[in-house]
Amino acid sequence: MVPAQIVIFGATGDLTARKLIPALVDIARLGLVRFPVQVLGVGRRAITTEQWQVELEKFLSPEQRSIWPELAPNMHYIDIGESTSADFAALKTKMDDLAGPFINTVGRLYYLALKPSLFLPTVDQLAEHGMLASDELRIEGWRRVVVEKPFGTDLPSAQWLNIGLRKHLRENQLYRIDHYLGKETVQNILAFRFENAIFEPIWTREHIEHVEISVCEQVGMESGRGGYYETAGALRDMVQNHLMQLLCLVAMEAPIGLDADAVRAEKIKVLRALEPYRDPKDVWDNVVRAQYGAGDQSQRGYLDEDGVAKASQTETYVAIRARIHNWRWNGVPFLLRSGKQLAKRYTDITLHFRKPPADLFAGPGGIARGLKPNGLTFRIQPDEGIRIKFLVKQPGHGHVLREASLGFDYRALFTSDSPPPYQRLLLDAINGNATLFIHGDETEAAWRFADSIRSGWSAPGAPACWRYPAGSMGPVEADALLRGTDGGSWGQGD
Ligand code: BG6
Fold first, then answer.
1. Which of 490, 481, 465, 420 is nearest to 234 (CA)?
2. Catalytic site positions
3. Which atom of ligand 1 is closest in space to residue 237's alpha carbon?
4. Is the pTM for the entire model greater than 0.85?
5. Are 127 and 244 members of one domain?
6. Structural domain span for residue 250
7. Is there a single domain that holds both residue 185 and residue 101?
8. For a substitution probing ligand 1, which of 242, 315, 348, 379 has the most ligand atoms within 8 Å of its CB?
9. Considering its fold, how many domains does the chain have in total?
10. With contact defined as beta carbons under 8 Å apart, do 249 and 189 qualify?
């Protein structure tokens, strides 16, 4: 049977050992592909295939180890030293040798688990050596490239990257990864919205008062991430990609199908309708950035983390009041926030519905005031589920109301664990399904929005980065963004 080859650049890195190889082992263990898969790790360290395999094995679970002896003969390593033309020629020879009689039909997936500055030089070399040529209309002999994040650092750099990649590859050969799209609960947003007819009619500005998307993390700068994070900050690291993708799924129109073109066309429309901020004042009024200081559980402040500049203004938290200018959403605030070193780890998307037009229970004996109107929450992680909140009358003689909820809990209904994101995404890339990958136009539109925030932050008179104690739920200044909404406060992840 015709094999597929997965060529991983950055083979000795963390991502390869922790995510990619375990995912590939599971794909084989669970019999998810029907053709043989050969893996070729490409790195700059002078190690042998055997040494590479020993390193990889350490990261496998006992179940994964049980089939490792069977898989290991298909895992090869090649050191491409300084990445010269001769090194790439040797890589091509190695790949062709491995393909053996299938040299003309083997499908090849190049996974760029590299630092972004190496994306284009690598793709240029692959093209120069004829390693990307393919005819996507043919089932066999396909060539695809997976690109890890970050995809650029602003709009010009993302455009430059897109132009560079498209010099050698068509859009349908490019798989820009965002691991949030590989999460089962994120994919379920589409199923919930478009396979249940009762919700879609109220998914509009007439019924929804505001939408909240919170991605709260407890982690800080573990595993020496400070150096990288200094070049990113929460806006680039989380908002431009993960939060934008969540926003797309909750705000998009129904696609005409589930194929990549149909789904991504709708996401692109949302991102293009997302209004960039007009001027610095607009940013200062609608965006709050902050950095964590020391916490009372002896957590270090950001400025004391390794690799962080002593006077760094890098934001580890950002909260945004965004607007989507289209028929469905005009006038509905989208409140987004993400931060590190927060009290709780959870990712929620909540649609807050409008109050009833007349408040019958507000008179004597009623305490409807202060209770939150209806809400629909997707809990993406950690305890995945969906919950609808509503008010009920408390038993008794008065008109006293209280909040109640209906909930669906993934773990209670489905006994098996959801596949990890990288398993799903790698499998899709091997099978040529790009629905859960990002189109180049999406990244550019998301950068246009993020860049408008950055330009407000760098304008004269911009407020400094606020502080919040590690282990809290972020700066109090972020509460101001909710002023005027019915809910009045950020969710608590409860
Ligand atoms: C990564 C960011 O893309 O996503 C990290 O670079 C962040 O800073 C991580 O911690 C969060 O992913 P998850 O799946 O743990 O929510």
1. 465
2. 242
3. 6
4. yes
5. no
6. 181-417+438-482
7. no
8. 242
9. 2
10. yes
